[in-house]
Amino acid sequence: MLKCPSFDHLSVGAMNSSDPNSESKKTNQAPKVGFISLGCPKALVDSEHILTQLRAEGYAISTDYDEAQLVVVNTCGFIDSAVEESLEAIGEALDENGKVIVTGCLGARDSLVQDRYPNVLAVTGPHATAEVMQAIHRHLPKPHDPFMDLVPQSGIKLTPKHYAYLKISEGCNHTCTFCIIPDLRGPLASRPVDKVLQEAHHLVQAGTKELLVVSQDTSAYGLDIKHKTQFWNNQAFKTHMTDLAKGLSQLGVWVRFHYVYPYPHVEELIPLMAEGKILPYLDMPLQHASPNVLKAMKRPGKIDRTLDRIQTWRKHCPELTLRSTFIVGFPGETEQDFQMLLDFLQEAQLDRVGAFAYSPVAGAKANALPNPVPETLQQERLQHFMEAQAQISADKLRQKIGQRMTVLVDGLSEDHLLLARTTADAPEIDGVVILDGADTAQAGDFLEVEISGATEHDLIGVPLNSE
Ligand code: SF4
What DSSP character marks residue 188? Predict the structure, then answer.
């Protein structure tokens, strides 16, 4: 087998430990990975990262094709002779061992590798320790670690077992004047899509029935890393909201998207919703409807286009639930601006709405804006706004009486009502279905119910299969 310095160093170091017997016993039990490292110093560093991770997880490194249970080949693709050398190394590893994972620069041209060697286990590009480790875990499970294995793969969660938040990015590239999140958390930093999908997979394995995708700006997901393609479950996914939705839809649970700004590519989610692959639900913070106020807020997008988009989305997915949040009484908001907001509310007929009276946040640029709205007027407008929305919500919920729908049981409320949610209700922020019957239902159960009543924000449902 070809060698690299770090490979030799690590394997020899393990053999030469002060207690050869115990080390060899450990090494005998540990799954063994062979490693071939080709190419430049950058590739060498990638090899070091993978080897370090392998050792940290308890794998042994083997210099022997027969002894290794799997071989990783870190390739070079810089010039033709390097490509040929890499391809030969892959061929040799396949002949001598049979189980081969390819990474590195040649791996970025995966069709070249796959065409010549269709039986390699996985191919990744360079600088892809996590993807390589994922492929190794799939084909050679990591050894039991009595300390780390006490922590569930899904991590420690603060939500009930049946739903979980899935954070896909941190920070934000916008500069909304009322917000200091970009100052606190920096610009957009997206998590690679394979990491997010793997976390989601672990959560589902641990019993999660509903995944709630969250970030500061979900529509912008992956922009900062140029929507880099990653591999998960032997499929290529771009680090992009649409591909993320496609990957999550394979997990067989409810998938709900939050903080989705109405950019044009949001329409790519609508067919997935219409086909039942993700929930027909969009949480879309709009904050206002008056162009003047939106300009003062420095919000992205144009509100008239948003109305057009909403109509198109509903045409293609009539069951779509739209949730939004608004700020009332922003500095400079006139009666006319507020009326535009009320008009928008009537026209958009949003299903779920949250609203707040503007209040200054230390460090926000909006604090310096002229013409603050007096607090009493802010509260009057807020009340007016919420009453208008309560009427829209009550009308919409009344139309659901008599319909049959699937609900996810959340459990007992403080006053001992059994509560559930439909696809239209996110936990904590939207309404609930108060179950009439179904005394044996548990949190996390899916039930079919018929809606028998409605209030301003909640529904009452009778389970169809209750005894
Ligand atoms: S309000 Fe949202 S979009 Fe605007 S800066 Fe803050 S986090 Fe970004």
Answer: -
**Ligand 1 neighbourhood includes 176 CB (under 6 angstroms):** yes
Distance CA 250, CA 247 (A): 6
Say what the pTM is.
Answer: 0.71
**369-409: pLDDT as tens digits:** 999 999 999 999 999 999 999 999 999 999 999 999 999 99
DSSP assignment of 191-249 equals PPHHHHHHHHHHHHHTT--EEEEE-S-GGGTTGGGTT-EEEETTEEEESSHHHHHHHHG
The DSSP bridge pattern shows strands 446-454 and 235-238 to be unpaired
* DSSP three-state, residue 15: helix
CB 193 within 8 A of CB 235: no
**Cβ-contact 457, 431 below 8 angstroms:** yes
Tens of pLDDT along 237-251? 999 999 999 999 999
Residues 6 or more apart whose Cβ sits within 8 Å of residue 281: 256, 257, 273, 320, 321, 323, 423, 424, 426
Q: For ligand 1, what atom is nearest to the CA of residue 285?
A: 2
Q: Where are the beta strands (DSSP E) in 22-86?
A: 32-37, 60-62, 70-75
- Chain Cα centroid distance, residue 435: 30
Q: Is 84 exposed, middle or buried (0-12, 13-18, 19+ CB in 10 A)?
A: exposed
Q: Is 310:320 a contact under the CB 8 Å cutoff?
A: no
The contacts of residue 292 (CB under 8 Å, 6+ apart) are 332, 334, 337
Work out the average pLDDT over 201-229: 94
pLDDT tens per residue across span 278-332:
999 999 999 999 999 999 999 976 777 899 999 999 999 999 999 999 999 999 9
CB atoms within 10 A of CB 218: 24
Sorted by sequence, the CB contacts under 8 Å of residue 314 that are 6+ apart come out as: 320
How far, in Å, is the centroid of ligand 1 from the Cα of 217?
A: 7
Residue 49 in tokens: 């990262």
Question: What distance in Å separates the CA atoms of residue 410 and residue 73, rounded to the nearest whole number?
Answer: 48
Residue nearest to atom 2 of ligand 1 (CA): 216
As given in the structure block, the two tokens for residue 19 are 């207690």
H-type helices in 287-361, by residue range? Answer: 291-297, 303-316, 335-348
- In a mutational test of the pocket of ligand 1, which residue from 168, 174, 221, 284 has the highest number of ligand atoms less than 8 Å from its CB? 174
Model confidence at 188: pLDDT above 50:
yes
Q: Is 217 in the pocket of ligand 1 (CB under 6 A)?
A: yes
Tell me the CA distances in angstroms from 253 to 244, 248, 249, 367, one per residue in order: 14, 8, 7, 43
